[in-house]
Amino acid sequence: MTATTNPLLQPSSLPYGLPDFAAIRPEHYLPAFRAAFEAHLEEIRAITGASAMPTFENTIEALERSGEPLDRVAHTFYTVNSADATAEIQAVDEQLAPLMAAHDDAIRLDSALYERVSQVHSQLADLELDDEQRYLVQRHFREMTHAGAALDDESKARLTELNKRLSTLSTAFEKNLLNDTNELAVLFDDAAELDGLTAGELSATARAAADRGLDGYLVSLPLFSGHPYLASLTVRESRRRLLDASLSRASRGNEHDNRVVLTEIVRLRAERATLLGYDSHAAYVTADETAGSPDAVERMLRRLAAPAARNAEREREALQQIIDDTEAEPFTLEAHDWAFYTEKVRQARYDIDTAALRPYFEAERVLQDGVFFAASRLYGVTFTERTDLAAYHPGARVFEVHDDDGSPVGLYVLDLYTRDSKRGGAWMNPIVSESSLRGTLPVVANNLNVSRPGDGQPTLLTLDEVTTLFHEFGHALHGLFARVTYPHFSGTNVFRDFVEFPSQVNEMWILWSEVLDNYARHHETDEPLDAAIVERLHATETFDQGHATSEYLAAAWLDQAWHLLGADAVVGDVAAFEKDALNDIGLLNPVVPTRYSSTYFAHVFSGGYSAGYYSYIWSEVLDADTVEWFRSNGGLTRENGDRFRQRLLGVGGSKDPLDAYRDFRDRDAEIAPLLKRRGLDG
User: Fold this and answer.
1) 281 Cβ contact partners less than 8 Å away, ≥ 6 residues apart
2) What is the pLDDT of residues 236-248, one digit of tens each?
């Protein structure tokens, strides 16, 4: 293919460099990747073959200028691969995974390149560089060393084999999970089986069935173990069917079973860590994060696990009491009952019916008058929909973002609804990365998995879905606001255990009165959400936190347990390993299953969170401390927003994240606000 026949072989002419998705077909990707690989390698050869002594300009900055076509093609493909993975796209991904791993290693493990980077690094004290340039030298040297660039040739060859095999396995894990999740969507024949769902929810299940050519009502599964409908379904057998389907994903002994895949991933990651000089994959990962070591992670998780488990047991006793007092034939509480009876306790204790809140959370109003409104008040930005710009799927919408002086910030893409070709969960990803060196402004995307209602029906969100939208938009703001010179530091390119911090902070505005009053209005009457209900919502902030914290910590500990294994460890029974690991930390509780079991733990086995799922609670220490700062300094003001934007969001990855936090907060974060928020302070 040539540049005239393959739209990926030349820069996009669309605003902000938005890829011309309408012109791109699956068969364009592999030729474009191959051309981009070769172009990148040629640029690297030019750096390493230079006769001049290594300098910042001819080595580090040249390295930053290299690979622009590859970045463009990769951002485009991986955006589509996660959000619209058709069979054709999956086939491309299977072929691409080992090629991409091999290319990454060809750069990161290049001995001549590492020698030049090392020479610049050794001269760092004598070079006249600004802070971003100095940090860039440090990070390139650290990352290449961490990747194995200092290994001998034999070790590098084995490392390359491991990386290629691991990329193939991760792709297989994600494909298995997507296919088995689609197969396990639960079909109900009779609407009575779904008693308790709203008209909109029932409409969504009917639409999902019709989209597959089925009669009845089809309930798709989210990425996590539970399901939002478990809180509403009155038919116990329906709740059981949903949770059983969710928990069995990719572990049923069929062609989509992930047990062999994940144990091989664990073994090869451990071997790679040993090759690189670490005791475990967890040690390898945390060595280049703010945590520093698995011991630091374990100390935090164990500190939180015991009080979380105690709180969960108290919550279980309260739920069992409800069952004993209200059911004609009492039974023992099981995991699929937890959410349903939690709602009963919530209603009895706080007089809040979360299902009754949905009419106040119409999706478009939440977006425009909640998410965008809060950002405008804090940061002065405006959002204008660009219906003339097409994203990668008809369901994805494009918005142009401007500062209050009219200057462009970037593009924001929102892809709200679930579909069979979209992976589960919710996420943000860059489509175009910002860099003044390359002259690019950011294009970022948010993906959620909200059920699409039937034609003519409004999209009414749950409070959890509202939270997810605000959370993911926090990532988007990080990607939109970062202003750096070098693409290495663009947007959310920060340490993994820091990246969740800005997104968690953005959740604080959900129930902030000025924001809530603006978006939480009944979709038919425009009636605002009753102030008394809002007050009771605030009162429930620690409600059910024993369960929520326990299921999260259980998943975080499973991730650590797998990745603390040595290369010679043999795991023959995945379920038994999980049981032993959870028992070890005191979180083995059949009525509180881990948020993700191993076979569908995509964050860890096909995403970027291996040995890093602890990051959410680690970042929440900073988040809770920051929320306290906002509250004590006037809340939703431009002055506060500008400080947070300039000192944290705006620096991207161009500064050590804890240094950036100290610059913002004038001190290190304290854990007390987190313990109070989660009801773990005694």
Assistant:
1) 266, 269, 270, 272, 273, 563, 564, 565, 610, 611
2) 999 999 999 999 9
Q: Quick check: 572 pLDDT over 80? A: yes
Q: How confident is the model at residue 271 (pLDDT cuts 50, 70, 90)?
A: very high
**pLDDT tens, 131-150?**
999 999 999 999 999 999 99
Pick among 1.10.1370.40, 3.40.50.300, 1.20.1530.20, 3.90.930.12: CATH of 359-539:
1.10.1370.40
Please list, residue by residue across 173-206, b when 16 or more beta carbons sit within 10 angstroms of its beta carbon and e when fewer do: bbbbbbbbbeebbbebeeeebbebbbebbbbbbb
Over its C-alpha atoms, the chain yields an Rg (Å, rounded) of: 25
Other residues' Cβ atoms within 10 Å of the Cβ of residue 387: 7
Q: Give the pair of three-digit tokens for residue 53.
A: 């002594």
**3-class DSSP assignment, residue 492:** coil
Q: Is the pLDDT of residue 655 over 90?
A: yes
Q: Give the SS3 label for residue 532.
A: helix
Domain edges within the chain = 7-108+110-150, 184-247, 259-352+544-613, 359-539
Residue with tokens 């298995």: 176
- In whole angstroms, how far apart are CA 430 and each of 79, 107, 476? 8, 22, 8
Is 472 known to be catalytic? yes
3-state helix, strand, coil in the chain (%, to 5): 60, 5, 35
Planar angle of CA 373, 378, 384, nearest 5 degrees: 45
* CA–CA dist 22, 577 (Å, integer): 47
> pTM for the whole thing?
0.93
CATH homologous superfamily of 259-352+544-613 equals: Neurolysin, domain 3 (1.10.1370.10)
Residue 639 CA to its chain's centroid (Å): 29
Q: CA 250 → CA 32, 238, 254, 438, distances in Å?
A: 33, 21, 8, 42
Q: pLDDT of 348-379, one tens digit each?
A: 899 999 889 999 999 999 999 999 999 999 99
Separation between Cα atoms, residue 154 and residue 163, nearest integer Å: 14
Assign 530 a pLDDT band (cuts: 50, 70, 90): very high
> Which of 343, 472, 551, 620 is flagged as catalytic?
472
Distance CA 490, CA 410 (A): 13
Structure confidence at residue 19 (pLDDT): 98
Enter the tokens of residue 253: 């002994």
